[in-house]
Amino acid sequence: MQIEVIGAIAMLCGLIGWLAGQRVAIPVFVVSTLLSAAAALILPSLGGANIQPAHLLLGFLALAAVMSRGALRRAGVALVFPGPGFWLLLTAAYATLSALFLPRILAGSTYVYAIARTELGPGIVSTPLGPTSGNITQSIYFLGDVICFLLFYEAASRPDGLKTAVDAVIAATAINLCFAAIDLGSYWTGLGDVLAFLRNANYRMLDDSVVLGLKRIVGSFPEASTFAYFTAGFFAFCTSLCLDGIRWRLTAPLALSSLLALTFSTSSTGYAAASGFIALFFVAGLARVFVGPIRKATLIMVAVLPLFVGLGLTVLRLDTPLWRTVSDVVDATIFDKMSSSSGVEREKWSAQALVNFADTHGLGAGAGSVRASSFPIAVLGNIGVFGALTYGVFLLQLFVRRRDQWRHAFPAACQRAARWACLAQLIGASVAGSFIDLGLPFFVFAGLACAGPEPVRVARAQHQPAAAAVSEGL
User: Fold this and answer.
1) Which residues is 111 bridged to in the sheet?
2) Measuring CA to CA, which residue among 28, 337, 350 is closest to residue 165?
3) pTM of the entire structure?
4) How far apart are CA 39 and CA 51, in angstroms?
5) What pLDDT is attached to residue 403?
6) Cα dihedral across residues 230, 234, 236, 237: positive or negative
7) Residues contacting residue 443 through CB under 8 Å, at least 6 positions apart
8) Cβ-based neighbour number of residue 194 at 10 Å
9) Are the beta carbons of 54 and 32 closer than 8 angstroms?
């Protein structure tokens, strides 16, 4: 095991957070999820697998929770059948077992696209199905997702924990935009990659790509699509909070800046996630107009958004040079990309993943065995019918389950924002997701979205309206 400098710093931060408590540990962890291009630990015995700072810090959070009976009890509520945690745990159990046994049982029965070492370094090659280090790393990542979900479910079941988690996400949104500004600024001023010290992981970095003269924004991430995926979740979260009147002086500029970052990221993942979220968010707002009471900000959004879009398209169409520039960017990032060598290659990944699904008779090739270019297809190829069903039930409950939810404005708005963030990232993953792992931020949002108040707190809230009013204004 090789400990990097970033890993030593992460360990120190983890110890400080452990001693200081969740008010420090949670923000440090959430911000660390931005460092997905960094490696805290490198494991040569697993083919040079990287342990990111966030996963290292997740261990410190989990250790603190294990030492608290109250935290274990609250987290355990999420695992009770038929709650969302139960289905996520069942998915993780099948994913782990499939990673251990299916590549061995079904070895050679199909060809898969997997990451392998080549003369030019790590690459994606077609190879007969068999055990690889990816089976181990992807299983560990997914088990980490489950732990992350449980930890934030537990935190969000308490008003103070929910407030800390929401503050952490807002802080991470601001820091993510700072990294994006540094990335662009250093490129255009000729300073080189100022953030290169954060990119010490031993996988390929696509941080210097340019499209039609526009620098693709990568921020602290290895590539533009990953930056866009994370930023889409932050954008959706802050937008929903802003329209619900939660810290709008802060969330409004963060949402607008995140949208601008997505616009100039030249990432098809970001464009799909942002446009899909905006469309569905508008439809939901329009439905609320006809169903019942609605906030003034939401009403303004419903009234103004169609006018704004129409006006924007009119201005673009009348300005021929600008229209041509926008059309060229759209063609380069969406339409032409599908016929490019990378686009064709990604189509092959997904097509082969479906072949793997059929060749394994619906069992899947095992978590980490199959690489695709779309999350739903990756799920089918890796964990088959059973994994897709359990994972699907978890996602369905994440978006539609309302039992035992908060009754007051602030926590309800935070949970609504978390669901929108999950939806935006799910749309992005459906466009470019390679594996079954949706990333730690997704499960941070999922924990916030699914958690309900502790029964004792609900009872107290019913008898203490004044205290409830205070919690709304946190």
Assistant:
1) 128
2) 28
3) 0.91
4) 6
5) 52
6) positive
7) 145, 146, 148, 149, 152
8) 14
9) yes
State both tokens at 105.
Answer: 């049982």
> Could you report the per-residue pLDDT of 319-331, keeping only the tens digit for each?
778 778 777 777 7
In angstroms, the CA 47 to CA 381 distance is 23
Supply the pLDDT for residue 256: 96
- CB distance 384 to 97 below 8 Å: no
Place of tokens 């990097």: 4
Structure tokens belonging to residue 421: 């963030």
- Please report where in the chains the tokens 């059929």 appear, as a residue: 358
Query: In residues, how long is the chain?
Result: 474
How would you write the chain as a 3-class SS string? CEECHHHHHHHHHHHHHHHHCHHHHHHHHHHHCCCCCCCCEEEHHHCCEEECHHHHHHHHHHHHHHCCHHHHHHHHHCCCCCCHHHHHHHHHHHHHHHHHHHHHHCCCCCEEEEEEEECCEEEEEEEECCCCHHHHHHHHHHHHHHHHHHHHHHHHCCHHHHHHHHHHHHHHHHHHHHHHHHHHHHHHCCCCCHHHHHCCCCCCCCCCCEECCEECCCCCCCCHHHHHHHHHHHHHHHHHHHHCCCCHHHHHHHHHHHHHHHHCCCCHHHHHHHHHHHHHHHHHHHHHHHHCCCCHHHHHHHHHHHHHHHHHHHHHHHCHHHHHHHHHHHHHHHHHHHHCHHHHHHHHHHHHHHHHHHHCCCCCCCCCCCCCCCHHHHHHHHHHHHHHHHHHHHHHHHHHCCCCCCCCHHHHHHHHHHHHHHHHHHHHHHHHCCCCCCCHHHHHHHHHHHCCCCHHHHHHHHHCHHHHHHHHCC
Q: Which two tokens stand for residue 86?
A: 């139960």
- pLDDT score recorded for residue 461: 42
Mean pLDDT by 10 residues, the chain (474 residues): 88 92 94 92 77 93 88 88 93 96 93 64 75 88 95 92 95 97 90 86 77 83 92 97 92 96 89 94 89 82 88 82 76 68 80 94 93 93 96 93 68 93 96 91 95 58 40 41
Closest CA to 89 of 296, 393, 449, 410: 393
End-to-end CA distance of the chain: 44
CA distances from 62 to 29, 34, 249, 415 (A): 11, 19, 34, 22
List the chain domain ranges. 73-101+142-472
